[in-house]
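Researcher: Re-running this chain for the archive, since the previous output was lost when a drive failed. Same request as before.
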Amino acid sequence: MTDLDLFKFVPFRLNRLAAEVSTALATEYADSYGLDIPGWRILATLGFRGDACTAQYIARCTRTHKSTISRAVTALLGRGLIERLENTDDRREFRLRLTDEGRALYRALIPPLLRREAEILSCLTERERIDFVMALSKIERHLDLVQDLSSKPPADER
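Model: Regenerated structure tokens:
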């Protein structure tokens, strides 16, 4: 039987890399804006979409557990950064959207996060960055992960 070298095992390396990058970015929005990672994921999803969606859709897009998203939704509602919209067809379902304050916060976070991303990727050449993004996209497609707004949520998640 062959031993598993964790430092060559891609899933282990991706997880470790994701944790490190997530922590580095979390510093940007935690220190200045008091947001945790799940709260940022909700703001980012709603801000990028520019439209209301369900918490289930956010959980699916961000690969974050439903209960984690639910707790973050409660916190963001309490801070007035998001609001709930009742589904007129199904009164049990709510969609979420950014408030004006939430939208302003999302907009304020974009420049420092893009700067931080550039710092993280600065060890790569331009060609390596392009290849890296293309490889990530290919793996995401293979795993059927939501990649962009053309990946519309199922009707029950809109």
